[in-house]
Amino acid sequence: MSTLQISLAVIGVVLLALIVAYNAWTTHRNQPKKARPVEDDPRAEPALRQEPAFDAALGAPPVARGSAAPPRTPVASAAPGAPAPEELPGADFAPPDRTAEAAASAAAPDAPVPAAPTHVADRRPGLDPLIDAIAALQCEHAIPGESALAALPPTRRVGSKPFAIEGFNETTQQWEMPTPGERYHLFQAGVQLANRVGALNDIEFSEFVHKAQAFADSISASIDFPDMVNEVLRARELDQFASEHDAQLAFMLRARQAAWSAGYLQQNAARLGFVQGAIPGRMLLPAPTPGLPPLLGLSFDTQAALAEDLEQSAVRELMLSLDVAQVHRTEQPFARLREIAAVLCNVMDGVLCDQNGQPLPAMAMDPIATDLELLYDQLDGRELSAGSVLARRLFS
């Protein structure tokens, strides 16, 4: 074999080795990024192991609005057609009792997200003439709470609207759900005028009258109903206002190059305070005050979240969402969404996009923030402040 042949053979072997090495490097580079073990990750903070029950009592996502009114759309054009989040607490007249405390993992030390101030709603979670049609009941004799409870209808809904009956506690001078051991002379029955499904209609009002009358007959009480025409008109006006002031924002974070594994995504979200929801692929940023709706939502592919090995699943995008009416403005939820999006884009090598996958420059977020402040002012002026009990009921 000549020297030339030997040289060509060596060169061929070297080129082949380089090609194999390059292919191996490319394959490794394009593999989904995996979560680091906590002990090996210098950015890791003590992780939260408790899983609060935010989603447990949320129910299914709101149904699309019917023909009575057009579907509510986000106030900001940067995120058109945002997906409706899970139904939030406050859809019925009283928020669910939660004993599990909501907590959050510490944020990444290189980009902390400041804690938001807490807020407690200033109105009681019962019937309110601002968003309810209310019928007054009066009894000749005091009715025990046990008898009132036994006479309640089996369901707490009229069509698609929440329905409730309350008794007036003369000791506390407060309206309340009938309670064993108490006695009541006065009751009130009410049905919500509107929610995200639409306005109270004639059929639903008639069903409300039927249920309330049956309760009144059971306890031998007289009942005074409001005028149906007036209440239906009020419902339509309230629904129109709600439709024009309902903002559900969603933004996409898309991987620039290598995909993320579901475990890698969850690990980075947990560092910013997100916790697992009851729905696979759904994470929530809890409110500082236990019992209030989550501040933000984070969602990704459900199939990836259900994979047997989270490190082998590939996710190329996630959604950050904010249901504006459910969170009080003092929590600064949109500012927190922007900060969290910036941190995730930096740490996970992603790019912020609108829901159609079009990249969003940082300056595009400023007009949205301005529009939201105007929206908050309009809700305040209607006594339906974002995050209040009434707002959470109306926008559900």
From TrEMBL:
Keyword terms: Membrane, Transmembrane, Transmembrane helix
Presence of the UniProt keyword Endoplasmic reticulum in the record: no
Taxonomic superkingdom: Bacteria
InterPro entries: ZipA_FtsZ-bd_C (IPR007449), ZipA_FtsZ-bd_C_sf (IPR036765)
GO biological process, one term: cell septum assembly
Annotated signal sequence range: none
Domain ZipA C-terminal FtsZ-binding intervals: 245-372
Region (Disordered): 60-120
Transmembrane segment boundaries: 6-25
Name of protein: ZipA C-terminal FtsZ-binding domain-containing protein
Native source species: Simplicispira metamorpha
